[in-house]
Amino acid sequence: xxxxxxxxxxxxxxxxxxxxxxxxxxxxxxxxxxxxxxxxxxxxxxxxxxxxxxxxxxxxxxxxxxxxxxxxxxxxxxxxxxxxxxxxxxxxxxxxxxxxxxxxxxxxxxxx
Length: 112
What we know:
The protein is built from five helices and no strands. By secondary structure, it is an all-alpha fold. Helix 1 crosses helix 2. The longest helix has 13 residues. 5% of the residues are buried.
């Protein structure tokens, strides 16, 4: 990927046909040692091809790839101990505290 990125950077800079030495120069400027075998493979695959056409072709291929999306709902977790939860005694509910004031403004007083 870093070799392709260097190739594309050179293409954006105006070099329509970057050589292996050009790519090595870009990579070495950021401290990356280039692997000659991978670099030669990239150069041979991209030789004589227009960068803009390759990007357009790749974009159409990516558009047809599913990108995840909705998925399904998660299954509910099973209750531990079988029916233990159903036989548990009900706790008395707390009575709600009466409101002291109307909370029409939700307790926010913007102007004092």
